[in-house]
Amino acid sequence: MEERSLDIGGLSVEIKAVGIETMMNDLEALTTKLKEASELIDEISNKRMQLQVKNLFADVREQSDV
């Protein structure tokens, strides 16, 4: 990362330039994390659906016992 200081009328400003390679690495890491999160969401959704089906069968079984 490249840092530069600039003085404008007594106001000191620091500029940090991030290289394109660093940005690409960050983007790749973010993409990986998003894929992992998406997979977890899919897994949770599937488990939720399985539980709903299980509960539905339990309700049907309970109704048939009555």
Explain what the structure shows.
- The protein has 66 residues and is of the alpha+beta class.
- The protein has one domain.
- Helices cover 70% and strands 21% of the residues.
- The protein has one helix and two strands, in the order ββα.
- The chain has one helix at residues 20-65; strands at residues 2-8, 11-17.
- Strands 1-2 form a two-stranded antiparallel sheet.
- β1 and β2 form a beta hairpin.
- The longest helix has 46 residues, at 20-65.
- It is rod-shaped and about 85 Å long.
- The N and C termini lie far apart (72 Å).
- The mean pLDDT is 85.
Task: Give the key terms.
single chain; 66 residues; two-stranded antiparallel ribbon
Question: What's the end-to-end separation, in Å?
Answer: 72 Å
Overall number of domains: 1
Radius of gyration: 27 Å
Main sheet record: 2 strands, antiparallel
Low-confidence runs of at least 5 consecutive residues: none
Binned, the helix content reads 55-70%
Q: What fraction of the residues are assigned to beta strands by DSSP?
A: 15-25%
What order do the helices and strands follow?
EEH
Number of helices: 1
Tell how many strands the DSSP assignment holds: 2
Structural class category: alpha+beta
The averaged pLDDT comes out at 85
**Judging from the principal axes of the Cα atoms, what is the shape?**
rod-shaped
